[in-house]
Each structure stands twice: as C-alpha cells, then as structure tokens.
Amino acid sequence: MNAKTGFTLLECLIAISLLLIFVTSAVPIWQHWRVRRHLQIVQMQISQAVRLARVTAILSHKSKCIRVIRPATLNIVDCESGRIVKRFVSTEKVIIRWRSNLGRNEALKFLSIGLTDGQWGYFEVMNLGGHRLLRIHVAAVGSIRSST
Predict the structure, then answer these.
(1) How far apart, in whole angstroms, are the C-alpha atoms of residue 85 and residue 118?
(2) Beta-carbon neighbour count of residue 78 at 10 Å?
(3) Where are the beta strands (DSSP E) in 71-120?
(4) For residues 148 and 38, what is the distance between their CA atoms, to the nearest angstrom?
(5) Which residue among 5, 78, 97, 106 has its CA within the 20 to 30 Å range from the CA of 22?
C-alpha cells in the first residue's frame, strides 16, 4: 500500500479561505470595540475631573474651575489665583469642549459648597473630524450623566 499522509492543496485552500472569512468578519467588531473603549477612557477622565474639582472645592473652601485648555486637556484650577490643581491629558485623539447654559463656555465653576454657580451644561467629545461621539452632562448640583 502506498498511503500518503498530509493535506492536499484543495484542503489547504479551503482551510485558508475559511480562516480569512473569520478574520474579515472579526475586524469590524474589533474596531467597534476599540472605539467604544477609547470613549470609555475619555468619559472616565472627564467624570474623574468633575468629581475631583467638586471635592477639592468643598475641602479647600475655595472655588475650583475646570478649563479645557487644548483640544484634549482639562485643567482643574483655583478660580481666584489661577493656580493649576490637577491636569487631565487625554491620550485619545479627540476634541473636548465645554458648553454652558449661561454662555460661559471657558470654564465649569464649582463653588466651595460643591455646587456650580447656577451653571449646567455638557462636555462634548468629538473625533478629529468634528463628529460628536459623546456628551457628558453636568447638572448644577454636580451630578454627571453621559449620552452618545
């Protein structure tokens, strides 16, 4: 008997084509997951900045402001002196903007009692093309909620 072992060329081509089908169907899923993960990171950074500004204002008995100084950088500053308390730099390629109900879009201000000065609004997160990806709403009492 001349039994040959191994795979034929047809069997190898079928296996490779099935593998390619699985890989090409997984790429969009992976890309979507990656975008969602980047947004979660940005959302976490903004939420952390808002909470830290509020707590710092209460503990120090001084007003604190959150300012967007570059497209993806938030500074928590002492509103009176302008001294930077904490800087949050997003490593993601996004643009962050603050939009206020009072038209004061340069900063979100927390008073020493932990409330904003009647100000509420949202941080808008956009990709570099200007498409809105996420909004993080901040109420006058400092509560946070997000929407896509």
Answers:
(1) 23
(2) 16
(3) 73-78, 84-89, 94-100, 107-110
(4) 13
(5) 5
The CA distance from 35 to 78, in Å, is 34
27 alpha-carbon distance from chain centroid: 22
For residue 1, what pLDDT is reported? 55
* pLDDT single digits (tens) 5-64: 888 889 999 999 999 998 898 999 998 888 889 888 889 999 999 999 999 999 999 999
In the chain, the percentage of residues whose pLDDT exceeds 70 is 97
* 18 CB burial (10 A radius; 0-12, 13-18, 19+): exposed
Q: Is the pTM of this model over 0.85?
A: no
| Structural domains of the chain in order of their starting residue, each with its CATH number | 10-147 (3.55.40.10)
Residues contacting 106, CB < 8 A, separation 6+: 67, 98
Residue 10, amino acid: L
Tokens of 3: 């039994």
- Decide if 43 contacts 146 (C-beta within 8 A): yes
Give yes or no for a contact between 46 and 146, defined as CB atoms under 8 angstroms apart: no
With tokens 């967007």, the residue in question is: 68
What does the block give as tokens for 122?
A: 């949202």
